[in-house]
Amino acid sequence: MKIAVIGGTGLIGSQVVKLLNDAGHEAVPHSPSTGLDLISGKGLAEALAGADVVVNLTNSPTFDEASPEFFRTTMDNLLAAAKDAGVGHAVILSIVGSELVPDLVYYRAKVLQEDILKAGPIPWSIVRATQFFEFVGAVLSWTSDDECV
Ligand SMILES: NC(=O)c1ccc[n+]([C@@H]2O[C@H](COP(=O)([O-])OP(=O)(O)OC[C@H]3O[C@@H](n4cnc5c(N)ncnc54)[C@H](OP(=O)(O)O)[C@@H]3O)[C@@H](O)[C@H]2O)c1
């Protein structure tokens, strides 16, 4: 199966590309560092040409108030281009329990990303993971001061 992995150069994306190729699929990574930009749409049609499935593993450059707009624009662009290219299935990676923490704008952004996918024009899957271990340092730094975590 030919699979376009958008964000396929990132922490999880690079591992997904390797696992898919090891399993016999033809997975190709795409991201700004390979010439694709989901915000502007640059390189998107070329990346999706002939793909059976698109896996979207992009991430917002910030986790703040700008993150909802990142996921809205990138999902709108991705789904429109995937429909035009005849892609059969779209997959995103979301976060377990994100709908339960609406005070965190990044979690609201992930719920928005899920809602846009569900309302979109092509069949979809949402994979929800808990936070990766690579994230432990950042999470603790947000909730620590000099004396307590
Ligand atoms: N980290 C966690 O604990 C966790 C848990 C559950 C779900 N998730 C979800 O998993 C996804 C990936 O997370 P990650 O930690 O692997 O992210 P990451 O390492 O920061 O990688 C982000 C990827 O997105 C690409 N990207 C950024 N802006 C883009 C744009 N405008 N157009 C196209 N691609 C763009 C980057 O490309 P370049 O390399 O070229 O910059 C990179 O390949 C996120 O949606 C996140 O919410 C993460």
Query: Please, how many domains?
Result: 1
Task: Please state the average pLDDT score.
Answer: 96
**Bound chemical compounds:** NADP nicotinamide-adenine-dinucleotide phosphate
CATH topology: Rossmann fold
Concise account of the structure shown:
With 149 residues, this protein is of the alpha/beta class.
List keywords for this structure.
globular, binds NADP nicotinamide-adenine-dinucleotide phosphate, alpha/beta, 5 strands, single chain, Rossmann fold, 5-stranded parallel sheet, 149 residues
Describe this structure in words.
The protein is an alpha/beta fold and 149 residues long. The protein has a single domain (2-142), classed as NAD(P)-binding Rossmann-like Domain (Rossmann fold, 3-Layer(aba) Sandwich). It contains five helices and five strands; from the N terminus they run E-H-E-H-E-H-E-H-E-H. It has helices at 11-22, 44-48, 67-85, 105-118, 136-142; strands at 2-6, 26-30, 53-56, 89-95, 124-129. A five-stranded parallel β-sheet has the order 2-1-3-4-5, sandwiched between helices. Helix 3 runs parallel beside helix 4 (105-118). The longest helix has 19 residues, at 67-85. The chain binds NADP nicotinamide-adenine-dinucleotide phosphate (NAP). NADP nicotinamide-adenine-dinucleotide phosphate is lined by residues 6-7, 9-13, 31-33, 36-39, 57-59, 93-95, 110, 129, 131-132, 135.
